[in-house]
Amino acid sequence: MTDDHSKIRELEHRNFRNDDFWKEIPGWSAVTRGEFADHKWQMKHSIRKVEQVRKILGSRLAEKDFNDILEGQKITPMNIRITPYIFALIDWENPLDDPLRKQFLPMASQFLPDHPMYLADSLSEDDDSPVPMLTHRYPDKVLFLPTTICPVYCSYCTRSRIIGGSTETIEKETYGANQKKWDDVFEYLLQHPMIEDVVISGGDAFMLTPAQIRYIGENLLKIPHIRRIRLATKGIAIFPQKILTDDAWFDAVKHIHKFGKAFGKQVVIHTHFSCSREITKWSQMAMDKIFQAGIIVRNQAVLQNGVNNHVDEMVLLTRQVGFLNIQPYYVYMHDMVPGCEHFRTTLREGVELEKAVRGTTAGFNTPTFVCDLPGGGGKRHVASYEYYDEENGISVWKAPHVKPGELFTYFDPIGKLSPEAQQRWGDEKIRKAMIDEAIKKAR
Question: How far apart, in whole angstroms, are the C-alpha atoms of residue 185 and residue 69?
């Protein structure tokens, strides 16, 4: 028999915040629940500049924290864009350690030097792009990027090379909707009958207009061999108000879902909850609406140091999204992209976390922990490496059905290695010898 405390703890995943939490923000203390619920209000009042952070928070923001954020914008590869919903959920009494602040509002003090083996396009999406806006890596699946605009900009974004606008450190070639290029994508798909699965990402599908959702969805579903479409959006996690009040947008999604069913095809949503703090009653209301429409939702999280790399947090997140009728799908090792070394964890952490999470809930509601291999090897289970030099943080992988005969390497963050290993990484010749030795052992 368990005590009351244990019962409460075990049922924590069913409790969702439902207070007027945004009223704790000085600039929004008079905002009504009705105003906060409106998707237009959320977009209009999104935080886009550091100066807005100070103006909205007033005396709640310590001067040292403001300066830390200000300096962070000189380092980060991503601009600021945060919905009021997420901004108000940040613990402004301790922003440095808050998992939401870490994901969306970088501070200079958190940054670490980039890993020597980082790549701007870590997953080689551009190399595997036969036509603009399309990546074709797996035989029967493609990634379609119709826009580079998002409702929030995540500090850990794998596509920071094209998303989030130019910053003080990076010039980017971002793009919005372009029907001509979309049509080129459709033509490519028509010419490749092996392709059955299209992921519509970007950017974020939340930023496509209802007309664009219908145009893209209908054109894809009319291609005879396309069987599955996935709309990828972080929106449910960071902007649930759009689901609840933007009827035109949600009607467009329901339309292509129904259109697909008429052809015997699947249209689903893939979303992106990374930690339990993102989940509130608004999340539940949005998911109730989606579930009642018969649309399947799956979740893809990114493993992030100080955000979700603790067993209790990952178990809670897994149970929470399952309770919301979202199927936990993937947890990714963090990609080796610039400006993100402080987010990354070791491969060992990923392996041990999956061991801990597996068995805490039903198997179909347990995410698979994967490493999306640098160089375009695709997603591999975290324990499926060919060789792992844990001392020096070097793992070597094969992807036999994606790129036969090739070997791929992934590297643990240097800051989590022993002092001796860190010193070895500081010597370019020793570094190369270590990598060559690991590859030799993997062969």
Answer: 40
Note whether 395 and 371 are same-domain residues: no
The pTM of this model reads 0.93
Q: Looking at the structure, do residues 414 and 326 belong to the same domain, yes or no?
A: no
Tally of CB atoms within 10 A around 89: 22
The total number of structural domains in the chain stands at 3
Two tokens, residue 320: 């929470």
| DSSP output for 235-261 | HHHH-THHHHH-HHHHHHHHHHHHHHH
Which residue stretches of 73-178 are H helix?
84-89, 99-104
CATH of the domain at 245: 3.20.20.70
Q: Are residues 374 and 232 in the same domain?
A: yes
325: domain range? Answer: 134-384
What does the pLDDT look like over 76-133, one tens digit per residue? 888 899 999 999 999 999 999 999 999 999 999 999 999 999 998 888 888 999 999 9
Buried b (16+ CB within 10 A) or exposed e, 306-343: bbbbeeebbbbbbbbbbbbebbbbbbbbbbbbbbbbbb
CB 234 within 8 A of CB 154: yes
Model confidence pLDDT, tens digit, residues 353-365? 999 999 999 999 9
CA distance 265 to 229: 8
Type of residue numbered 90: I
Of 76, 230, 225, nearest in space to 145 by CA: 230
